[in-house]
Amino acid sequence: MAKAKTMFFCSDCGGSSAKWFGRCPHCGAWNTAVEEVAPDSGGGKPGQVQMAAVKPQPLNKLAVDKCPRYTLGMAELDNVLGGGLHAEGSLLLGGEPGIGKSTLLLQAAQAAAKYGQVLYISGEESAQQIAERALRLNVMCDNVYLLAQTDITAALQQAAELTPALIIIDSVQAAYVPELDSAAGSVPQVRAVAAAAIAFARLKRCALMLIGHVTKEGQLAGPRILEHMVDTVLYFEGERYNSLRLLRAIKNRFGSTNEIGVFEMGEMGLQPLSSPSAYFLQQRQSRISGSAVACVMQGSRPLLVEAQALVAPSSFANPRRQALGFDYSRLLMIIAVLERKLGLPLGNRDVYLNIAGGLRVDDPAADLAAAAAIVSSFKDQALEDNILLLGEIGLLGELRSIGQEEKRLKEAAAFGFKAAVVPPGKRAPSTRAAALKRLETADLAQALRVLSLSG
To answer: Considering only CA atoms, which of 143, 225, 147 is closest in space to residue 190?
Structure first.
């Protein structure tokens, strides 16, 4: 019997090589070589779906049919998808174990059942386990079918008989193509399973949703080409011991990648938060030093967040700086500006900064709130409760203008804020935001004087 031929695959990009490599010749990643049995070249590609032969056509002669969208009834999810699930699109959902990926897609399956039959293919749980979860979530529908199967070829044969409007595969790492000798979850298997599922969905003109595992670094497991194959890539984020869940679009061919969905995990599954700002500010204490409020943009949505800081004497030669939900490099820059431009003695003090509620902020408009919270904690002096802080801090200590100021001020005005410290610039149009008193400040020192934190 001939010895099976093996090849080396890159676990990051999926590139192949006949020889072992320390650094991937395709993407340059180190120590990503995985030895797998090479697929047999005969009989076509494993898991390949036979497609009808097509001929090239002139672009201006092609008929453009606007593909419908499936509105899933969950406002947050529909918003992230750009108005609903594309009826012929493929979606990849990644997230930490236990974060709620299966729960989200099971609820989506119930909503999509009004458009046709939905097939839920599970390779990690039995049909009985999924039925128990569906009963707990009150997700019981005649049009939702469960199939516990890891053989993707057999599963797609069942799907062909059912002709569903939506196929859900949980997960792409648990399924396998029988023509390949490698184990499920390996680079060749993941690529072949995804290719077979996407080709079937395009052939049958149905929507496809895939669940993908993530690595310890938080990236989707498997070859990077998997993200290029699908139309939409979503990441489900959240702390295991926190009920808040965030859904982010990393790639979306049918909508914006700047939107996020905010959910709360409860006994009845995931519930969209109609007012995320109220959630993030619900436990804010009044007149406490080290607290400041900013308004950050997550896509087209303004969110009010509380920046909390704690400055304490350090017992180490090198004081600690720690940031939760805030960019660590920006925290170091803000501390350097406070020391160099304002003379704040932070060299012998530990500085901790936290964005309350579990949100991760990357909007530079939160710089001023972070700096004010640090100074407030250092001086043990509380800020006014109804004042909003907006502005990006430059290395020279200046406050730089921010985008979409009107939306931010309207959100703050709706929650009862009376004043806003903002960088100088064009005054916002006269709207409900005019109820806020705009306090324009050119630099950080002037902003702290307005807040009575200077001196």
So the answer is: 225
d(CA 447, CA 373) in angstroms, rounded, equals: 12
For 138, other C-beta atoms within 10 Å of its C-beta total 10
Per-residue pLDDT tens over the stretch 390-405: 999 999 999 999 988 9
Tell me if 397 sits within 8 A of 291, measured CB to CB: no
Six token digits for residue 5: 């031929």
Query: Before 171, cis peptide (omega within 30)?
Result: yes
In the 8-state DSSP scheme, what is residue 325? S
Chain centre distance of CA 131: 28
53's CB contacts (< 8 A; 6+ apart) are none
* Predicted pLDDT at 335: 97
Unique residue bearing structure tokens 């709360």: 264
Kind plus residue range of the DSSP H or E element containing 187: helix 187-204
DSSP at 8: E
| pLDDT mean over 154-161 | 93
Give the count of alpha carbons within 13 A of 85, CB side only: 29
Please check whether residue 165 is in contact with residue 116, taking contact to mean a CB–CB distance below 8 angstroms: yes
Asked if residues 439 and 419 have their Cβ atoms less than 8 Å apart, the reply is: yes
CB contact set of 151 (below 8 Å; sequence gap of 6+): 175, 176, 178
Query: How far is residue 107's CA from residue 124's CA, in Å, rounded to a whole number?
Result: 18
Going by the DSSP 8-state scheme, the letter that residue 22 receives in this structure is: S
The whole model's pTM is what?
A: 0.78
Order of strands, edge to edge, in the sheet holding 387-389?
387-389, 419-422, 437-440
Distance CA(30)–CA(54), nearest Å, equals 41
| Residue 181 tokens, joined | 């000798």
Q: Which of 43-52, 104-113, 329-338, 359-368 is predicted most confidently? A: 329-338
Crossing angle, helix 152-162 and helix 187-204, to 10 degrees?
10
What mean pLDDT, rounded, does the chain reach? Answer: 87
Q: Strand 207-212 relative to strand 166-170: parallel, antiparallel, unpaired?
A: parallel
Helix (H/G/I), strand (E/B), else coil: 246 = strand
- Residue 43: is its pLDDT beyond 50? no
- Residues with Cβ within 8 Å of 246's Cβ and at least 6 positions away in sequence, in order, are 236, 237, 238, 260, 261, 262, 263, 359, 360
